[in-house]
Batch of 2 targets.
Target 1
Amino acid sequence: MHSITEAPFITEITRICTNMYSLGWDERNAGNISVLLDEEEITPYLDKDRILRTVPTGFKVPSLAGKYFLCTAAGKYFKNTQYDAALNLGIFRILEDGETAGILWGYSDGGQFTSELPAHLMSHVSRLSVDQKNRVILHCHPLNLIAMTYVHSLDEREFSRTLWKMETECVFVFPDGVRVIPWMVCGTNKIGEATAEKMKLSRIVVWPHHGIYGAGRSIDDAFGLVETVEKAAAVYLKIAHLPVKQTLTDENLHMLEKRFNVKTPEGWLEP
């Protein structure tokens, strides 16, 4: 059996954790990532039947029973993942009851997965109902996006239109736009349920004055999505106080829809 530290999924999540911390998206122990793994991916590295211990997930998800997840640990710093993956990450299977995690590897100090796991699991269910290839849920605190939630309307249509017009690639990277939930206390099932409901409509959910949830088919896909939204927010903050002399028009955005074969939500662009 191969060393799990050599597994591509461990190398990839470690690299992204380091990168996100360096970008300032995950200060202190902020942020969390969960990755849905195939059984075939883990069997060269782990005995899938050797459960080290069990931990309640805090939420019952029968549809995910038997599924395997790689997830960042609660209370740990992303910057340290590169030095001790087994302490800062873990792999578990959702057991038959749909509400217990069987730890297969990691959380080596007796810790466990992020406190936001219910929000992750609910969001995985939502995204899988839209795209069976969805594998990653990523939560972080990008500076410019958070700042934008203080000075811009939180209306989803208006927020999305502003971001789309900040950079040409935005409308084809996230044609579904962004969805926004009201401010809520984090780490609760309530915020998880609200996020998951929005995840049925978009791969991006904004938590005002807090951060963002992004989803993707791979870690790079989810990371690139958030990266694009954050850059658009940065452009907005640089020009919001200045007289704008020209911008992308709705006609331009329709041209991009046609060129890249994407569709924005009905009525979000002028005809």
Note: The mean pLDDT is 95.
Target 2
Amino acid sequence: MKTSPDSPKACTFCTGKGDNGFTTMADGTRVRKDDPRIEAVGTVDELNSHVGLLRAHLETDDRLKNICHDLTEVQRHLFGIGAYVSGYAQSTLQPGEEQLSRLEAAIEKLCQRPEGRAFSSFVLPGGVMAAAQADVCRTVCRRMERRCLTATDGKWPQTLGAYVNRLADYFFALSLYLNHFHGYKEIKI
């Protein structure tokens, strides 16, 4: 579609600069769109979208608003992880030791069951919709972890590695919690 020089652009973020299969990293480096760093950043973005979908499933129930708050924080930290992989050495959104501790505390809280029994076996992914979506988040998070390790040649900060590893654990615990919360009995292996 041709536009005249006087007509406003329909979309200011559509630059066309990536039409040739290349993009620019945050540090200014031009790379192919199949570069391992772009693959990692894309997987971080994919997880962030899945977390948004999970949060949308939970926002209709006020009893789960603390979990929605936690998921919003996770999404912010995912932007920080994506920024690191794309070339920003430091971002205020990157999770640090404090966020790692909070994530571990959230996992512990999710694993507490009123009857005092801990979760103790492998279960099939699924159950209620939100729990199934938490399982999708877990698996995408594990792939993101692998892609980020490849993109950084395994040389990314220990805190980021620990956070991402715990994040997958968090999604597993959340899936179990949500099934329990909604009275769904998991199918054990």
Note: Helices lie at 36-58, 65-85, 97-111, 129-151, 158-181.
